[in-house]
Design goal:
Number of helices of chain A: 5
Oligomer: homotetramer
Largest sheet of chain A: none
Shape of chain A: elongated
Radius of gyration of chain A: 16 Å
Structural class of chain A: mainly alpha
Largest interface: A-D, 41 and 41 residues
Order of helices and strands of chain A: HHHHH
Amino acid sequence: MTVEEMLQTHPRPTSLDRGALQRCIYECVDCAATCTSCADACLGEQDVADLVRCVRLCLDCADTCDTTGRILIRQTEPDLGVLRSATGACTVACRACREECERHAEHHEHCRICARSCARCEEACEALLATMDQTNGKG
Amino acid sequence: MTVEEMLQTHPRPTSLDRGALQRCIYECVDCAATCTSCADACLGEQDVADLVRCVRLCLDCADTCDTTGRILIRQTEPDLGVLRSATGACTVACRACREECERHAEHHEHCRICARSCARCEEACEALLATMDQTNGKG
Amino acid sequence: MTVEEMLQTHPRPTSLDRGALQRCIYECVDCAATCTSCADACLGEQDVADLVRCVRLCLDCADTCDTTGRILIRQTEPDLGVLRSATGACTVACRACREECERHAEHHEHCRICARSCARCEEACEALLATMDQTNGKG
Amino acid sequence: MTVEEMLQTHPRPTSLDRGALQRCIYECVDCAATCTSCADACLGEQDVADLVRCVRLCLDCADTCDTTGRILIRQTEPDLGVLRSATGACTVACRACREECERHAEHHEHCRICARSCARCEEACEALLATMDQTNGKG
């Protein structure tokens, strides 16, 4: 994605771990699109009535990943508390959505793929949070 | 706002405190619009260079309030952990934005108004979180 | 809403018709929340399978109103072509959502309320577009 | 991006040109992130006062690409009029942002990169719109 190239030209480079940040931004953007798609695919299934909780959690996860991605993309004058709570909320939304998608993964390939995307985003958020804790300790 | 009327017609009424929920939804929607406006008004000021941190935190707060508002509006199959972490992240974003806006409140009326809007949203989120803790204790 | 107070403190007041702009911003923000709620209420109904198109169009309308509201809230260095096409797209999304909600208005009160909210936003967008055409003619 | 894999598992495949649609979704998602980053990088520059219009148009373009990407990702019960006006509005927002970013491309590498991203998204939207016109003619 072009945003990775953008971050290298930024006038105020991040003090966060660059690799962990870039991975987390990518996974948030990717997961937001995947969850938007899974909510819609579930809505198009004949057994939509059995997928209501999955649609709900995919919508919440898409919105959360979208906002967390935007907040992490911004490098100018960051507030570490805001970054931390946004990334933490994203971990929670991804976990809830992944667990529900896993329940439908055998019957719906899009749920299987979405669960993997949520798992990757959850891990990337946790990894970034771990580097933030170190930043805090130092600072 | 029409959404309050909507919630009374919902087929699956919330188990959360209705008054605290409705107030929090209203404040999230109101604060998202206010912060979008304050970021833009700061950008239009002659001393924009002194308002860079204010623009940044207003953009983060607008995105966070927008997403939290959407998550709280949804009543079908809620995940309490997702609601809680979203509302908590909103409290943090509102507090950071309010504190920065307060620094410019004497010079810029829009920052003064925005700080009050963030303060109301912060309080509404904290009040809703307090009722969620009670729900958890009971459940 | 606080954003109306904000616009009166803006350092670069709009050249658009103030009343038409404020009404359109309010209706966009209100309709975005209403459509988010109607998509969710439909999802919670027992006859969700008959409401799939309604959910879809409510999600599209919520996203479109949200973005159009943000673009119209911003007053600094506007591009009239961007304002015009965003407002036009919002008219189209509101009309499609209203027509679908009207089909379910007898059976679902939330669809009846949502159809009215979409109708008001559609009218406010059309009224604002009409004032933009006059601005263009003069300018 | 995972969303391309998702679309191949969708229960209701699109009637639009698959290649043009997938390219447009990718460019919208990519451009939304790039414009969020360029607005923020401009805000972090010492000559931010000269970049105010660029920040404004990047914010509008990010929001528009975000919403258009979401609408195009959804395949269930699409309304061709909504798809068309959203994609059209995205073309306009990308063009305005590209033209402004090009003015700063010599001095700011992030504006140069962002202008290219907007140009690709503008082209992808126009190409998708061209296939929609053919769909309309046939249908």
